[in-house]
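Any chance you'd type out a single protein's sequence alongside its tokenized fold?
>
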Amino acid sequence: MATLQFCLKLELTGFKWHKFMKDQTGEKYILTVGLEIHAELATRSKMWCGCKNDPDEDRPNVNICPICMAHPGTLPVINREAVRKVIQVGTALGGKIAYEFTEFDRKNYFYPDIPKGYQLSQYKFPLVSGGELKGVKLTRIHIEEDTGTSIHDQGEYSLVNYNRAGVPLMELVTEPVIHDAATASAFAKEFQLLLQYLGAGEANLEKGEMRVEANISVSKKLEVGSGKLGTKVEVKNLNSFKAVEKAIEYEMKRHIALLDKGEEIKQETRGWDENKSATFSQRSKENAHDYRYFLDPDLPKLKLSEIAEFSESEIRKTLPELPWQKRARYVGLGLSEQHAEFFVSDLKAAKYFDSIISHFAADPASIKTASNYIAVDLAGLSQKDDFEVFPEADQIVGLVALIKSNKLSSRGAKDVLLYLTKKESQGKSAEEIANEKGLLQVSDEKALEEIVNKIITDNPTVVTDYKSGKTPLLQFLIGQCMKASKGAGNPETFKKILLQILG
């Protein structure tokens, strides 16, 4: 009974039964991770001023003004569209939107790339509280401003580019409920997809439009359920999903090695060195109270309930089909999980695929065929240098119809698809291409019987062995017929004729 109660306690604290069983095999430690993800919002202007929000601007310090440079006497104005995008994200994730009250605070710390000497952010009253994504519970989602960019490779000095300073930045914070690196990476990928689906931002990690920070701790197995976690270490500015996974795994091993030696874990902020595949110490970790948060006197408190366009009903009208909804729809149509993920992860591919399958509403087999030729064959062809154009949706629809009607073999369909990626094939149907290239499959028995008779005559030993009971040899004979017809013969028709002649 005591064991059962302990297992139930583990389940209530977020640890699944399989995790408990795994720990009983002798593992001494439990990994716990919480994520903080910053993402730049795709608005036309910055968060507090009218300066252009342009992540692709190469010229330094051109998208700046007295407001984003914090000149004395200037006043910030809240970017309405940035607020809307954060509310959309919060609504999509099932969070509680601060309709009654939200406000902005000053987070005080100094870096050369923060013009104000503080960051306008949110603390006690964020725009969104709670929510969930991929089974991971969220603490909050709030809005703040990005910093400028420091450049350190110009010699014995640093330069600062303030184009990014004041760009609207959304921060998502999870609860510390993640217990393996793969789950953390998958969560970040799904969040990136959500931002792209909503048009909230491109969230390109390589360009710094999305940055992941992992708060990592390791605790002893016996402390599970007590609410006590190990000393937390934060790894900042992880700029790829692989880096998220590798950094967490590295820190877990580092913590365990120290704990096994009886040493203490130092609470600190660390960076990730991709070349060494290792983290490195940056500074001792500051606590929240070190930032001396206080209400910003220049920005108004917001009551979103008084803004009609921000009401829950109006915001829900703006939500598109979300990644997990699209994934479930594709799997429901019969797609494999792998193919469903291919389309979910690429909005352009998904739009293209949807324009095709709209012609096959009552035909799951055709939908699956289209999926195979797009996600495997067409995706593979598009990586080659001689790929010239993307086939029109109608051309793919026609290709699937030819396959379904047995007018085109699988091999022939691949050849037609290749021709459809050439500029010379624009405006032509799949059937026209198949006709021009002599790829249409022949099903007429009289036309194929001559080929069958020749194959039987040329392979007397195989025929004898088949008649003596080696029935798998029928496939060999069919293959020889297909080869003789250069792929144009219908294999089912060849099979029918062979069975009639051989008995």
Q: What stands out?
A: The CA atoms of residues 448 and 489 lie 7 Å apart. The two ends are 69 Å apart (CA to CA).
